[in-house]
Structures are given as structure tokens and as C-alpha cells.
Design a protein that fits this description.
Layout: H1 3-10, E1 12-16, E2 22-27, E3 33-37, E4 50-54, H2 59-75, E5 84-89, E6 97-103, H3 121-137, H4 140-152, H5 160-175, H6 184-198, H7 203-221, H8 228-251, H9 258-270
Antiparallel strand pairs: 1-2, 3-5, 4-6, 5-6
Length: 271
């Protein structure tokens, strides 16, 4: 689409860098069109695809966008883009936004290849089910867990070491609900048992991986040397464990109480 066509159809113009990322957006026509950025992730914005719209933007619509964004990240590996909205405002002193068209550039793309990850038709139902799970549980402590996960997989504008530590912290919130200090062995054992039981992961492999991840996390926390290759190797593994654990947690939080987790822990030792 040319700049002239974009300006005529949408009342905006966009600039891109050499890698195809959006670096700027501005209004070009009347009635006034204003652009809203709901997430601090401008570096992820690329080709826009309209996937959701509201006749009038309200605060509840913002929550809908947040939950949709988080649900996409829980569905599968990938990083969702920046939701932008274009609102037509009244030309008077109220300056009120009377209608809203929302777009999400590249709803899901791979962090390393930068290629768009397509959602298959059969995945739409899964996305809807995950959306309902997140919406139902989006409150209190669980909201904090969900939001921390969303922040950790937000994208390139947050340094990977910080995202790595954040993901590990969310695992601790799920698997160590009553612990006042780090219990890395217990975390590894509980995680391995849950994913082996419910997500068809190899428990021994999970246990070994999470111990390596714990050591990497310790290096980051205490200022030790942690190579980019180590982070690149284990970040996808950690985010995969986190995504699967959070889905289990949202579906049924009962098995994640301290008593229930301890029971599973001792059964594992006995076996």
C-alpha cells in the first residue's frame, strides 16, 4: 500500500526501518484521527492486520485487548505485536473519541526468525477457550501471575536477562506458594512431576533443564557471566514450561496448594 493510499483509507502514515519494523505513526487527514498505543512494545509493530474493533472505545475494551494479547501468548510459542487504535474524535471542546478501530500488527511472530506464526483454524477454538480461562481468573494474585508472564514474553524492548528472571519468578509463584526462601530442588521436582503427568513432558529432562535454568538465573541475579548463547538456548525451554504450567494453573488451581504440592512431592520421593 502506498503512502497516498494509506493516508486516504486510514488517515495515517507509517514509517519503517530497514528490518520492516514500525518506527513512527502520524495522522494525515480530517476528521481528526488519533493513534493510541496500548503496550510499550513499539519495536514489535510491523504489518497491520485488523482483528478486533469497537464502536466506541471504553475501559472494558482495554481489558479485552490485554486478555486477548495474553491469551495469544499462552496459546503457543511466539510474541504478539502492538495493538494500535485509531479513534475518530468530535471536532468540539470535548475532544471525545466516538469510535475506535483496533489493529494488532503481526499477532504472533517468532522472536528469532521474525516470521509471522500463523494461527490454524483449529487453534481459534483453543484461543477462545484460553481467553475464557484468562478472563475468569484475571483477578487478585492470579492476575499478577498472568501479567508477570505477559511481561516476560513481551518482546525485544525488554532485555532477555530480565525476562528470563521474571519467568523464573512466576514459576516460583505457582510452585512455591508458601515458601519464604528459594527452594530450587522442590521447584524442579514439582514442575517435572506436573508436566510429566499432565503435559507429556519427560520428567527427568524437565528436572535437569530447570536446574540448569536455576543456575543461569543465579548468574544473572548475582552479576555473574551469562552468555547470550546460554540465554538463547534455555529461554525458549523456560517459556515453554511457564506457558504449560500457567495453563494448568488456570484450569484448576486446587492441585497447586502447598498441601497438595507437598503430597505430590512425597509420593514422587516414595516412588
Amino acid at each position: 500500500m502506498s503512502d497516498k493510499e494509506r493516508s486516504k483509507l486510514f488517515g495515517i502514515n507509517v514509517t519503517y526501518n530497514a528490518n520492516g519494523f514500525c518506527t513512527g505513526i502520524r495522522s494525515t487527514s480530517k476528521p481528526e484521527i488519533r493513534a493510541f498505543n496500548f503496550y510499550d512494545k513499539q519495536s514489535e509493530a510491523r504489518t497491520a492486520q485488523a482483528i478486533i474493533s469497537f464502536d466506541k472505545f471504553e475501559e472494558k475494551n482495554r481489558k479485552c485487548l490485554e486478555i486477548l494479547n495474553l491469551s495469544i501468548k499462552l496459546l503457543k510459542k511466539g510474541y504478539s505485536g502492538t495493538p494500535y487504535g485509531f479513534g475518530y474524535g468530535k471536532e468540539d471542546e470535548t475532544n471525545e473519541v466516538t469510535s475506535m478501530w483496533l489493529v494488532i500488527p503481526d499477532p504472533l511472530f517468532d522472536e528469532y526468525t521474525k516470521e509471522v506464526v500463523n494461527l490454524e483454524p483449529k487453534e481459534i477454538k483453543k484461543l477462545r477457550d484460553i481467553y475464557k480461562l484468562v478472563e475468569t481468573n484475571y483477578k487478585g494474585r492470579t492476575k499478577l501471575i498472568i501479567d508477570r508472564f505477559g511481561l516476560a514474553v513481551s518482546g525485544n524492548n525488554i532485555p532477555k536477562p530480565l525476562r528470563f528472571v521474571e519467568l523464573y519468578g512466576v514459576l516460583e509463584m505457582i510452585y512455591l506458594p508458601k515458601q519464604n526462601s528459594e527452594q530450587s530442588f522442590r521447584l524442579a521436582l514439582r514442575l517435572a512431576k506436573q508436566l510429566e503427568t499432565h503435559k507429556h513432558e519427560n520428567g527427568s529432562e524437565v528436572f535437569l533443564n530447570i536446574n540448569k535454568i536455576t543456575r543461569l538465573r543465579g548468574k544473572i541475579i548475582h552479576g555473574g557471566a551469562c552468555s547470550a548463547s546460554e540465554l538463547d538456548s534455555y529461554f525458549p525451554i523456560l517459556s515453554n514450561y511457564m506457558r504449560k504450567s500457567l495453563l494448568l494453573y488456570l484450569k484448576n488451581q486446587a492441585p497447586f496448594g502447598e498441601k497438595q504440592l507437598n503430597s505430590m512431592f512425597f509420593k514422587t520421593i516414595k516412588n
